[in-house]
Amino acid sequence: MQNIVRYFSISTLALLLFMGCEVSDFDLQENPNYLTPDSADPEYMLNEVQYLFQHYMKWMIVNTDDVMRYEAMTDTYGDVVPTSVMDGDTSKEWDTYYEALNNVRTIEALAEDDETLLFHSGVAKLLMGYMTVTMVDYLGAIPYSQAVNNAEFPNPELDGGAELYQTVLGDIDEAITEIQEANFDFSTDLFYQSDKDKWIAFANSLKLRMLVQARLASTDIGIADIQAEINALSSQNLIDSAEEDFQWSYSTVQEPESRHLYFQRAYVSGFDQYIGNYFMYQLKESKNNPDPRIRYYLYRQSNEDPFSGPPYLPCQGDPDVDYCYIGDQYWGYDHGESRVGRGDNLLRTVYGVYPGGGSFDEDQFVGAPSTTDNLGGAGILPLLTSSYVSFLRAEAALTLGTNGDPATLLETGIRNSMSKVMAFGGVTSDLQPTAADVDAYVGEVMQDYSNATTDEERLDIVMKEYYLAAYGNSIESYNFYRRTGYPSDMQVPIDDDNPVFPRSFPLSRLEVQRNLSLEQKNNYDKVFWDTNPDSFIK
């Protein structure tokens, strides 16, 4: 790539890393600070990769929070995920990805001649692999094999998505071997504190996730018997407890900004987004037993009824709106509602204590920027958790006939999510849900599952619970919605009954301008594993 990243000198990098810096304005045109194996410090570089990784993942999550109805999409799909060459822009994510790729390749080169760096190399491969499959899942084909080598490849060409999946699957196997053989730790491991078993559980779980993701096109990634591959993984060390969950933890530090992005958006100056009414309805009204996670997920700033006086909801009385207001002071917007700016930033519902580090809803009804009863932004990115692994295994069992009872895996996924959310933040309140509340909710879901008459109906139920558990990580729901079409009752934009759902994201606008090998793509172009019809989802 011609203009991918600005690399810092080692002394500057060390200072910024330990301060948790933001990474921006990357420029690499004959930069004398370009790090090579002869000049690099692998400890600093891998620390930087961890920070780049979390920046990249949080931005990709925010990219699809509104598309997936967790937040309200107050525009059209074409505006949220642009289709034109000039509008398309994933430049920030793109540059961050390629800076990380250069660092990882340098670490791997160093490890070839230094066995003390095997752990570094294994961890670097896994983080890079997760970022690479996310790039493929969102964008499709990307430059990879020729990337970050400007001297030889000034205009690096695209590598196909299926080919990159094959590459990452191989890298995961190499990473597992390196971690198992490593005799030296990575001293600033911000995920697992150099716990080999946990890293291997993550590696196997990431591989499982990729195989389920590509199950509709498994032969494209060179797997003739995907059932056997997944069965083999199911007997391996997988993420199956909260202690093994792969997540990034934020802090309350403001300078440099180290708080969860949800907290920054809702608790600092007034929430300028809207929680999606579809999502709130699923938590509050879709079952006889409300979701026990609702007070952890959502925080209500006001006890005013928006139908009782100004500022009135503009959707009130509109027959084309599905929800408008779901009651009990849960203020949000429907999917595709464009009548925004009603001056209720301190009245609408915002993010709660999980996962963004805000407030647990105890009926305080205090504007989020004013409340001091919160975690100060010390939230998490729930990237690959035990509940997600259970839902993935349930999907594989239903669609591929792999090992494991899908009903048991469904219940395990729900309960693992409930336990994780309800244990978060040290909440103590009379309004916390009880074990009986959880049992009632789980019992209702399992009764619905038992009453289902087809595997498609059962899969719909599994994906609905996956969707609710994946709050804070819309990467997961964006992927499985395109893969399965479920949940089947996803709200369609209220002003368009037949929208073109974005099946992928545009390439970096800046990179298309500077890399002569690239052409901008359309947001209706499908990634390699998405073999479903064009109008499959809305």
Q: Taking all residues together, what is the mean pLDDT?
A: 91
Name the poorly predicted regions. Answer: 1-34, 84-88
- Span between termini: 35 Å
The whole-angstrom Rg is 23 Å
Q: What structural category characterises the helix and strand content?
A: mainly alpha
Number of strands: 6
Strand order of the largest sheet: 1-2
Keywords: Lipoprotein
Protein name: SusD/RagB family nutrient-binding outer membrane lipoprotein
InterPro entries: SusD-like, SusD-like_2, TPR-like_helical_dom_sf
Protein topology:
Elements: H1 10-19, H2 42-65, H3 77-80, H4 91-111, H5 118-139, E1 142-143, E2 158-159, H6 161-181, H7 196-213, H8 226-234, E3 246-249, H9 261-267, H10 277-284, H11 294-297, E4 298-299, E5 350-351, E6 380-384, H12 386-400, H13 406-422, H14 435-451, H15 455-469, H16 474-484, H17 509-514
Antiparallel strand pairs: 1-2, 3-6, 4-5
Characteristic terms for this protein:
single chain; 538 residues; two-stranded antiparallel ribbon; two-stranded antiparallel sheet; 17 helices; TPR-like_helical_dom_sf; lipoprotein; SusD/RagB family nutrient-binding outer membrane lipoprotein
